[in-house]
Structure formats: structure tokens, C-alpha cells
Amino acid sequence: KPDSPVNLAASQAVMEHLRSITAQASQQAVIAAMSTGQASTGQSSSAT
Fold this sequence. Notes:
This protein has 48 residues and is mostly helical. It has a domain at 1-32. It is built from one helix and no strands. The protein is rod-shaped, with a radius of gyration of 19 Å.
């Protein structure tokens, strides 16, 4: 199929987009959990 590389590139771009969105969402969730944890316990914890 001549359009096979185009479809492959498009699907890869979509997967990368979804991955970046998921990474941002999980990072924000971790930051929110850490901030609420610090506020409730009064302890500061660093996680990378």
C-alpha cells in the first residue's frame, strides 16, 4: 500500500500526543497529591 507509511506516521503522532497528555495529567496528579499531602501532614516530601 502506498499510503502505509503515512498511516504509520499519523498513528505514531497520535500515540505521542496521547502519551504527552497522559504524562502531563499524571504529573499534575502527583503534584496535587504532594501538595495536599504536605498541607494535611505538615511534612515536606520530595519525589522525582
